[in-house]
Amino acid sequence: MSTLIERLGAVLGERGLIADRGEMAPFVTDFRGRMTGAADAVALPANTDEAAAVVAIAREHNAAIFPLGGNTGLCYAAVPTPAPGRLAIVVGMSRMANLRAMDRAANVVTVDAGMTLARVHELAAGEGRQFPLHLGSEGTAQIGGLISTNAGGTGVLRYGPMRDLVCGIEAVLPDGSVYRDLDALRKNNTGYDLKHLLIGAEGTLGLVTGAALRLRQPNRSFAHGWISVTGPEAAVELLSRLQDRCGDAVEAFEMLNRAEVDCVLRHIPRTRLPFETTPEWSVMIELAHTDPDADLVAALEEVMAAALEAGLADDAIVAQNEAQAQDIWHIRHSVTEAHKIEGVGIVHDTAVRNSAVPGFIAAADEMSAKLFPQARVLVVSHLGDGNVHYILMFPHDCWRALPDGEAKALEVEMAVHDIAMRFGGTISAEHGIGRKLTSELQRLGDPVKLAVMRQIKQALDPDGMMNPGALLD
Which of 75, 34, 67 lies closest to 429 in space, CA to CA? Predict the structure, then answer.
């Protein structure tokens, strides 16, 4: 191992290599502190050439590479778990955070993989553009990790997930070569589009080092609202009415149950409820348009009034200023932080067609009451794209008393996933598979698809050095 460390040090320098066990601790533990791995070194390359050299050195020493972005994932894909006797190198991208190019006319920004999502937002805004991916961890989440997990967020309804926002990728492949596809052409019909293999691959096919991202025209008119709907069925109907009235101006449509909202209000400072009591079911809405004269507030008020009259809702508010809008979305974007305080949440990332969401939730509620009565059910759903984060929240003391927490978590996951599959859904909509759901993917995934995935992995990474244990068991 000493030879490996010496060679890495020669390439990376003092700032780019960590070999002390104590200093490595934050790089081998997931951000919630639930899973800790092990590594022999943490490499922090400053550029693509250094990253390629690290992979080449690892290959010569038969060491495994574990890519690390902002460490905001929920499925442990960034936690290193090397096979016994195999050396392990965590490759963090935090020093690769540079702007490479801004092309305002083409609406493309090219950045290093270690740039945070928040920084991309700043750069886009400085050019009168927007990058329309938004999620709660944007100050920490890095572009490479967002690509590798095909991240979603609140804007998928209108803009799609990361896959729809990436127009080029640079990556170090397992053999140490560098795949460069950053031309970002609208039309390029020259065979396989290899970037789509890397998007969502969770670092198992290569190490993403750079990306070209599609920018959009900024929205200049907005409307934000919170409506208390009578249930998920009413929320689905409200979504249809809103899309009929406002088209693709529907930017976000988020549904939360009472327990979820109360959890945030209980634990997160500066959160305020605009109603006298917490609604049984809440829908938070954002409308946005590039036309500064679009009267979205009037449109939202019109749809809400009709929903109240039709009995789909019993209360509603429309934000009258930016501060009120921020109050609404502060609650929505604080759910993950509140969960960490509340207890141990078994978080599911299921998705079904949005028309099937009410039935899925009802079936999951019935199952949860029967099998896991000690857990509180929290629901937060990107309803517009059918993504339901169905969470069973166990009190800390209850969880500590379990003889085997991992076995209980798997029991819960299997029960919820079975219901999602029954409704024609998926077990992972935006969080990925990581190390958390490999057995579930094997159990429930399409055998033909899994076989092809394994063939691709074998072709590109025959030695299994890139993030072994993630995605494919």
Answer: 75
Q: Could you tell me which residues come within 8 angstroms of residue 20 by beta carbon, excluding any fewer than 6 positions away? A: none
434 close to 77: Cβ distance less than 8 angstroms: yes
| Residue 178, helix vs strand vs coil | strand
* β-strand partners of 89: 41, 65
What pLDDT shows up at residue 92? 98
Residue that has been written with the tokens 């791995």 in this structure: 37
At residue 124, what are phi and psi to the nearest 5 degrees? -65, -45
What secondary structure letter does DSSP report for 405?
H
Tokens encoding 11? 């390439």
10 Å CB burial of residue 273 (0-12, 13-18, 19+) is middle
Q: Which residues in the chain show pLDDT less than 50?
A: none
What pLDDT was estimated at residue 1? 65
Q: Using CA atoms, how far apart are residues 447 and 449, in angstroms rounded to an integer?
A: 5
Query: Of 232, 228, 231, which Cα lies nearest the Cα of 357?
Result: 232
What's the pTM? 0.92
Radius of gyration of the chain (CA): 23
Cα separation of 117 and 125, whole Å?
Answer: 12
d(CA 38, CA 59): 18
Contacts of 423 (CB under 8 A, 6+ apart): 352, 356, 359, 360, 363
Distance, in Å, from the CA atom of 446 to the CA atom of 385, rounded to the nearest integer, reads 22
Phi then psi dihedrals of residue 288, to 5 deg: -150, 145
3-class SS of residue 428 = strand
**Secondary element (H or E) of residue 347:** strand 344-347
pLDDT for 28-41, tens place per residue?
999 888 899 999 99
Enumerate the H helices of 167-312 as residue ranges: 195-198, 232-246, 258-267, 296-309
Q: What value, to the nearest 5°, has the Cα angle with vertex 33 and ends 27 and 37? A: 50
List the beta bridge partners of residue 257. 281
